[in-house]
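so my prof wants the structure for this chain in the tokens format not the other one, which i didnt know existed until like an hour ago. anyway here's the sequence
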Amino acid sequence: MSRKVDRVIISPSPLLLIHPSRGLIDEKFSVIVQHLPPFIEITLHALIHSDDGDLWEAFGHYVSDATGLVNVDSNASLGGTYDGLEPMGLLWSMRPVPGSRLGLRLRKKEVNTPVVVTISVYRGHMGQGFNEQTALASVVAERWYMAPGVRRLDITEAGVTGTLFLPSGPGPFPALLDLWGGGGGLVEYRSALLASHGFASLALEYMTPRTSGDSTSHVGNEYFEAAFTLLKQHPQVCGDRIAIVGLSFGASVALGMAVYSTVIQPRCLVCVSCSHVQPVKGSLSDVFADISKYVHNIENRVIWRDLLLPIPTDPTKKVDMGKLPCPVLLIVGEDDQNWPATESAEDMKQMMEKAGNSHLLTTLSYPGTGHLIEPPYSPHVRVSNFMMTQTRQKILVLWGGDTAPHSHAQEDSWKKTITFLEEHLYRTTSVTSQSQL
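here's what i got, hopefully its the right format
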């Protein structure tokens, strides 16, 4: 007697693929899920454990196609921390997990280690409770600020403290003086990434007891001049091909020193979220003279942009942009709540047009973008803690911006920054025409 045997079909387990699984932080990666049932709802979830010990997450909702495939490069997210066709949304839309400390900002402190991103796929469209569910599949990706061969050198000489990053290869290299904002300290990750793109980059520490002494939280103009001179004289640096890259207060320093210093003679400037409003006479540290007069919004967040408004007509209260001797790239967030970046950029343009040197000016202005314009795929931070350098008081500052447009601006401005620097630092003669980005 014959016996009927049922045929059992066993479906393969879902397969989650990340390519490349190891790369630079500004390098795109693809995320693909295979072997899913057709037309099934899934959630892709990304998790980072920060150097500060905090957890950050992002997630997107997807539906598999008829073949059981989800590809973030070609499939739109239907919801989550981002939506639409956003291949890198799993990075730039990251936010602290529920229950985290208030006012966090994700910044890499140890640049010699990677940002480790755990990416998982879950059944259904989830918005919470990821740690309580079992993922269908998980993979780990590494994103680095330092490319293989980049060298990190501690600098404590000539009264200067910082970190010099040198690209791989024999050199000498075009170089950058990297200046961060009014929070001071030593911030290395942008310099490490710039060195990964071929530029020697000195991340300068300032406004700390180590650089300023115990009696003051500021440094004088001579400190920045000493740093520029040290960089210029380094044997691995092309001394006549140095730029300054600055954010916020650091960009104000760059503008003032480029115009008035007889020591600092940069080939070009990149100024992010900046203003030219500052006292011409006296120390650059005087920019913070009225910083205690801050304004709060209805959520008790500190807003500083109005402190510099209206833009003064008194020439002693702003850098004379008509005397700027080198090309400058201004990167402006139109929702900057920290500095009046848009108003400042317009006034700088008018000053340079009147003086006849507006051919040196390139402005990138981004709607929906706040103050903290960082390298690509860095999470947008609208509000975060800020330590007052004078009083060591911690406050919550409103930086501005909306997540998607801000993140798109970071990606676009970074690409154009690299192009701008390559154009002006790799030429053998000074540049006097406007860059075309």
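also thought this was worth mentioning. The domain at 151-425 is CATH 3.40.50.1820 (Rossmann fold).
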